[in-house]
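Changelog note: in this version the structure field was regenerated for every chain. One regenerated record is shown below for reference.
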Amino acid sequence: MSPTLVIWILAVAVCVLVGRDLGKWLFGANEKLMTKKRAAQKLAGVLRDNGLKLLPQLLEDFAVGDVHDMVEKIHDVCKVVDAGSDAIVKELEGTYENVLAKKLATPEGLAYIKAKIAEIEGAQPDASPAADAPKPTAPAKS
């Protein structure tokens, strides 16, 4: 066998081995990204079920790889924050109503809410006892 042929055979073998390892590494990195995207889709569903609108859209754009729409959604979120607290309160009001409805739908949730109401009613805002109580005096040094 000529030395040139041996060099070509070894070069091909090395290229195949390096290509195989490089492919495994790239597919591993892709799998990590796909895991993050699946988690983002699940989180978007949970947030949407609880009444949020802007963040689930942003997460879904990330999950499908739509960078252009994702940047637009980031601008929309910035506009909501810049608009003031009324826009944020409006976004969160629907979330509050959905979570409250889910709590009221189960006996455990209803019991939890009743316990919280009883706790609040039990702690009526009377005159603060700390303001009425006499201040302790330091013992006299002898």
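Spot check on this record: Residues 8-118 form one domain. The longest helix spans residues 3-49.
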